[in-house]
Amino acid sequence: MAPILRMLRVNDLDLAVWDWPGDGPPILFTHATGFHGRCWDEVIRQLPGRRAIAVDLRGHGRSAKPDPPYRWRDFGADVAEIARQLELSGAIGAGHSMGGHALIFASALRPEAFASLLLVDPVVLPAALYGQPSRDDSSYIRKRRNEWSSPEEMIERFRSRPPFEQWHPAVLRDYCEFGLLPQNGRFVLACPPDVEASIYGASNDAASSPYDLLPKIEQPVTVMRSGIPWNLEKFDLGASPCAPDLAGHFRHGRDVLLEGRNHYIPMEAPEIVAAELA
Question: In order of start, what are the domains of the chain with their CATH numbers?
Answer without folding.
Answer: 4-277 (3.40.50.1820)
